[in-house]
């Protein structure tokens, strides 16, 4: 079970990325567009664009191993979660507001830091029917905030 | 490989942090943010190694590497597949990345945390542009090819070293639209750079000095490689670095500190370009701007190409002044000396010269001026040659690579700025004249 504070953190205006690896251990990665936790708090759902994630989706289907990073640009606070039971499921249109809220939160975070809104909106642009959901149970959590404690497991 | 890395270099500036994915030997993937990606050529990049973290462990264990880079101009994302080759812990690439990282660290509030341990060099195996919308690239403010063509054309028309240096700085302003520029010459014997010309500052700073190895300019000179920093950083603010470096090597006395360096008090962007000809460092071009990220890879490329041309032209003019000598012209009739006498005080310990108690110059240029003025006072001599100075035992030039012509330009400019009634003027190749319009009182010691 994730610490409630981390659960809250990963649902703020963080940047989200997901990595997997193929049978040849070649890594693949893609940007996420928001996330949510299942009602029982055990499963994390991360939303991705299928068109930008073909290798990642294939790799998850192959072995279920994922690394998932959440980073808040204004503080550099970064958390990495890992899972080994990931699978790709159909995007539930009921999650659409989560994606839109994530983009709004991220804009509020990075536009004051100097990135133009049009650039951020372009990076996170999506077509609703291009979205897929990756579901996994976080098995480990690490701090990756730059510094000497980076990479240490979170208690 | 379809996409060329040199066409998407803005993604490497770190404005939008890149990300790196690796995999350990157990098959567990790992993701991390990158501080910096350095373009080497179309097939090679270097990543900054700052911490011995999971990414590094995986890379050293042979993991393939996947990068996600994003253009802060168009919003386009790219995935790169890389293979690790080696780590460099010293030398030009390392120093370039260390300087850039200092700016990035300062920008991200990570000064003291980010510390470059090495430059990890990778081969680029593949570049993939991710599908999605893209913004149009903003129109460039300068067409660099046109600027370069016009500027190098103007350099070829110069007849003397002094004219060449003036034209070079004019070109940077007029053709490249760069407003704050310094040109420093290399004093090989003393391991110093001295400012010979500048643009865009309230004081010219001509004659001010920087030790090789100190700050952006000094490191550029030592490594003979462009140094470009996109954010303000106290670590490379030259004033502070210079003082520290000078104190550390105990040579504070030898450094010209009476003439302050010009410079913007808070430069967001700094770039220093070495001027090299035939494997000798001749000097450094330094440009700066108050804005962050003002200079990019294209600016760096354009100025490196310009500096290469400038270096050849400088080399040519220095050689020409040494080897050729125009026939002497008849000394112009002596100008009558008028006005109150000018007190010229000379201190042999460091060859420094004061005019009416105001410091003018020291070192080789000081020894040259004292010699010229002594000859003028003793026998009204006004006509001199570079060759004559070179063999004059009173001057003690350090050797062949002494930049004599550049020192004469320095002296000429300091005198012009002071406007105390002493002037130097070129009268032909390898030949110049002294003009004095006030009585001189020379005092040694």
Give an account of the 3D structure.
The complex is a heterodimer of chains A (155) and B (445). In chain A, strand 1 and strand 2 (27-37) form a beta hairpin. An eight-stranded antiparallel beta sheet of chain A has the order 6-7-3-2-1-4-5-8. Chain A has four helices and eight strands. Chain A is 25% helix and 32% strand. Chain A has helices at 4-9, 54-63, 96-110, 117-123; strands spanning 15-21, 27-37, 44-49, 66-71, 78-83, 87-90, 131-136, 140-143. Chain A has one domain: Electron Transport, Fmn-binding Protein, Chain A (Pnp Oxidase, Chain A, Roll). Chain A is globular and about 40 Å long. Chain A is of the alpha+beta class. By secondary structure, chain B is an alpha+beta fold. Chain B folds into three domains: 5-129, Electron Transport, Fmn-binding Protein, Chain A (Pnp Oxidase, Chain A, Roll), CATH 2.30.110; 144-323, Beta-Lactamase (2-Layer Sandwich); 342-444, Orthogonal Bundle (Arc Repressor Mutant, subunit A), CATH 1.10.10. The N and C termini of chain B lie far apart (70 Å). In chain B, helix 3 packs antiparallel against helix 4. In chain B, the strands form four sheets. In chain B, strands 2-1-5-6-7-4-3 form a seven-stranded antiparallel beta sheet. A six-stranded antiparallel beta sheet of chain B has the order 10-9-8-13-12-11, sandwiched between helices. Chain B has a four-stranded mixed beta sheet with strand order 16-15-14-20, covered by helices on one side. Chain B is elongated. Helices cover 30% and strands 29% of the residues of chain B. The A-B interface holds A 17-21, 25-31, 49, 51-52, 63, 65-69, 71, 76, 78, 80, 82, 84, 115, 118-123, 125, 144, 146-148, 150-151 and B 15-16, 19, 21-23, 27-33, 35, 50-51, 53-54, 63-66, 68, 70, 72-77, 79, 81, 108-110, 113-114, 130-135.
């Amino acid at each position: 079970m994730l610490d409630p504070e981390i659960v809250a953190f990963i649902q703020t205006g963080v940047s989200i990325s997901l990595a997997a690896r193929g049978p040849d251990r070649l890594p693949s990665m893609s940007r996420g567009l928001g996330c949510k936790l299942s009602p029982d708090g055990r499963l994390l759902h991360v939303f991705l664009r299928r068109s930008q994630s073909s290798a990642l989706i294939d790799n998850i289907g192959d072995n279920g191993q994922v690394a998932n990073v959440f980073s808040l640009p204004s503080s550099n606070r970064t958390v990495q979660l890992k899972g080994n039971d990931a699978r790709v499921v159909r995007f539930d249109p009921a999650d659409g507001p989560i994606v839109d809220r994530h983009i709004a939160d991220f804009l509020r975070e990075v536009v004051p830091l100097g990135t133009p809104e049009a650039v951020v909106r372009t990076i996170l642009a999506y077509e609703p029917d291009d979205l897929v959901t990756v579901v996994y149970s976080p098995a480990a959590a690490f701090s990756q905030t730059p510094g000497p404690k980076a990479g240490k497991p979170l208690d | 490989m379809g996409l060329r890395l040199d066409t998407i270099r803005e993604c490497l500036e770190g404005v939008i942090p890149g990300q790196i994915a690796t995999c350990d030997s157990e098959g567990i993937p790992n993701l991390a943010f990158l501080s910096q990606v350095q373009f080497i050529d179309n097939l090679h990049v270097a990543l900054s190694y700052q911490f011995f973290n999971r990414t590094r462990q995986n890379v050293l264990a042979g993991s393939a590497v996947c990068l996600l880079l994003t253009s802060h101009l168009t919003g386009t994302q790219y995935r790169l597949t890389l293979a690790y080759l080696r780590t460099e812990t010293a030398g030009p690439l390392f120093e370039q990345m260390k300087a850039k990282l200092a700016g990035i660290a300062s920008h991200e509030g990570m000064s003291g945390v980010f510390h470059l341990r090495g430059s990890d060099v990778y081969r680029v195996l593949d570049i993939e542009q991710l599908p999605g919308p893209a913004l149009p690239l903003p129109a460039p403010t300068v067409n660099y090819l046109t600027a370069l063509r016009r500027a190098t054309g103007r350099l070829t028309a110069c007849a003397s070293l002094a004219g060449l240096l003036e034209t070079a700085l004019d070109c940077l302003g007029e053709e490249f639209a760069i407003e704050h520029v310094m040109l420093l010459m290399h004093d090989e014997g003393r391991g110093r750079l001295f400012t010979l010309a500048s643009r865009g500052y309230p004081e010219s700073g001509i004659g001010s000095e920087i030790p090789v190895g100190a700050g952006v300019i000094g490191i550029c000179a030592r490594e003979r490689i462009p140094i470009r920093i996109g954010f303000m950083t106290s670590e490379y603010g030259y004033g502070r670095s210079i003082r520290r470096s000078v104190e550390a090597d105990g040579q504070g006395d030898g450094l010209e500190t009476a003439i302050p360096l010009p410079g913007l008090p808070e430069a967001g962007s700094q770039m220093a370009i070495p001027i090299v000809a035939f494997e000798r460092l001749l000097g450094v071009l330094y440009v700066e701007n108050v804005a962050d990220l003002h200079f990019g890879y294209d600016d760096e490329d354009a100025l490196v190409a310009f500096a290469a041309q400038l270096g050849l032209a400088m080399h040519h003019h220095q050689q020409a002044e040494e080897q050729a000598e125009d026939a002497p012209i008849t000394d112009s009739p002596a100008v009558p000396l008028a006005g109150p006498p000018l007190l010229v005080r000379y201190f042999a310990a460091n060859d420094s010269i004061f005019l009416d108690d105001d410091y003018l110059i020291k070192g080789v240029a000081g020894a040259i001026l004292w010699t010229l003025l002594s000859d003028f006072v003793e026998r009204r001599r006004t006509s001199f040659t570079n060759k004559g100075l070179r063999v004059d035992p009173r001057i003690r030039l350090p050797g062949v690579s002494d930049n004599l012509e550049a020192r004469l330009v320095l002296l000429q400019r300091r005198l012009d700025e002071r406007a105390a009634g002493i002037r130097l003027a070129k009268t032909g190749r390898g030949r110049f004249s002294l003009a004095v319009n006030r009585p001189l009182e020379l005092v040694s010691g």
